[in-house]
Design goal:
With 495 residues, this protein is of the alpha+beta class. Helix content is 38%, strand content 23%. The radius of gyration is 23 Å and the shape is globular.
Length: 495
């Protein structure tokens, strides 16, 4: 047994993930004060019976679609065809605020971490798991409080907000992306989760129809349809990394993506109409647009000298058709050059910069209050607007929260990226000296980084990095791995 093999065999992957959380400034363990508050909530046995101001919509065929292993279910969906050809689509969002009191111990802990972190080996939930996977989760076969956003979508994909209100829901089917996509895209048999739920097949096909309408209009407006690689460690029976799973776009993910984007736009506009300050999610006009122009030029394409999301979207669509084999590589380069999203305050009278990648001017995060603190804040603002009461936060508080959520989200990405590298280092530890095709993903003061194409893993170019730029395609040799720290070092091959 080699030294690397011996080391990795002793590696406690959950402990590595926990240490990565601490190093990134997270508090991985729920504090005693929050656990005491949780115990009191459990003792109180909150009832799901609707109040006089809450609509009872338990008779509708609500269902959820999420990852197969997900238990923190934030939203459910329902759609119905209208006589004029429009489709009413309703998204129910878990009413987390109903149990998580502002400035309580649970809320303080949630604010501190600001997001759930998914490491592939262990999930560090923003809320105590008894809440996020049960009491505030829209679990199957349970009645749950929610906030419903009802939209009317016409044949052209135009979405009009019909109403926003509190409602009591019942999730009749917990569906997974994997099973729904196999059924919709690959003609697989009806998912077992459909059993006993009358009309669910027609319901999902209608949701796919409305998602297609929304997606078509977004593309016309310049929304970027990129396809980056997202890997998840696949563990064997001994808890060791056997392979890397790669997620892919499909009809099931299209349903959720398009319905959630439409919902987030609707809520941003709803709050703006109510003259309430809010937290917006933006992606700024890219500063590295000239490099995107160069990438296009290298492929025989021309982009305008000034940033233009529609021109970029059309270029991306052409490249996907012309060279589908390398489309994920191009997508990764563009994502890196666009830069990350961030949270900012939208004042009652101000203008938002908008979301360049989605080609929308009004956008927030609202559909995952179990997982993101910004969404929980938006939910509180939304409930205040529905009740006609004053905002629970002033602009200064919102600005501080927005800045903190942006910083914590960036930290979470780093933790998740490190744990993907830990998994990759474990997978590659016996392949020192092997050569791989790769694409340059980052050029920073800390070093130059690349992702190999097969398997898709990230590492540092420790030798031969001079002159490289994001998007360059290169050949690399694996020099070393350090699974405990998630280090993978490559050398650029000379041709």
């Amino acid at each position: 047994m080699t030294r690397n093999q011996s080391h990795s065999a002793r590696l406690d992957l959950s402990a590595v993930a926990r240490n990565a959380m601490i190093e990134a400034g997270f508090v991985p363990d729920v504090p005693a004060s929050a656990l005491a508050e949780l115990h009191q909530l459990e003792q109180d046995a909150h009832s799901a019976n609707p109040s006089h101001s809450t609509r009872d919509l338990r008779n509708l065929t609500w269902s959820s679609i999420d990852n197969q292993q997900s238990r923190d279910l934030d939203q459910v969906e329902f759609a119905e065809a209208l006589p004029n050809g429009d489709i009413r689509v309703m998204v129910g969002i878990a009413d987390v605020d109903a149990l998580v009191q502002k400035r309580g111990a649970i809320d303080d802990h949630a604010e501190e971490n600001a997001t759930s972190v998914y490491t592939g080996f262990k999930t560090f939930a923003m809320l105590p798991e008894q809440l996020s996977t049960d009491m505030t989760s829209l679990v199957r076969d349970a009645d749950r409080a929610s906030i419903v956003v009802a939209l009317i979508v016409d044949s052209d994909g135009q979405a009009k907000t019909e109403a926003v209100y509190s409602a009591l829901l019942h999730n009749y089917a917990k569906l997974s992306y994997e099973s729904v996509a196999a059924w919709l895209d690959d003609d697989a048999s009806t998912p077992t989760e459909f059993a006993g739920v009358a009309g669910l097949e027609d319901q999902l096909r209608l949701q796919l129809e409305v998602a297609g309408r929304l997606r078509k209009l977004r593309k016309q407006r310049g929304a970027l349809e990129l396809d980056t690689i997202q890997t998840t460690p696949v563990l064997d029976d001994a808890g060791q990394v056997a392979s890397l799973g790669v997620s892919a776009r499909n009809s099931a993910t299209d349903i959720i993506e398009n319905l959630m984007i439409a919902t987030n736009v609707a809520i941003a506009q709803f709050l703006e109409a109510k003259k309430l300050p809010s937290i917006r999610r933006i992606v700024r006009t890219p500063k590295q647009w000239p490099r995107i122009v160069e990438l296009a030029r290298d492929l025989g394409e021309k982009l305008p000298s000034e940033p233009n999301s529609l021109a970029l979207a059309e270029f991306i669509a052409r490249r996907k058709q012309a060279d589908p084999l390398h489309f994920q590589d191009l997508s990764l380069s563009i994502v890196k050059l666009l830069g990350p999203g961030e949270y900012v305050v939208q004042t009652a009278t101000g203008q938002s910069e908008g979301h360049f990648g989605l080609a929308v001017s009004d956008y927030t995060h609202s559909t995952a209050p179990n997982r993101r603190y910004a969404d929980l804040i938006t939910q509180r603002l939304l409930k205040a607007s529905i009740a006609g009461s004053a905002s629970p936060y002033d602009e200064k508080e919102l600005a501080e929260i927005a800045e903190h959520c942006t910083e914590r989200e960036d930290a979470a990405r780093k933790v998740e990226r490190k744990m993907r590298k830990v998994a990759a280092a474990l997978l590659l530890e016996n392949r020192i000296g092997d050569q791989f095709d790769a694409i340059v993903t980052g050029v920073t003061p800390r070093g130059t980084f690349a992702r190999t194409l097969n398997p898709p893993v990230d590492g540092l170019i420790a030798r031969g990095e001079q002159g490289l730029r994001v998007g360059d395609k290169i050949r690399v040799k694996l020099l070393s791995t350090d699974p405990a720290r998630g280090y993978i070092d490559f050398a650029r091959n000379a041709f």
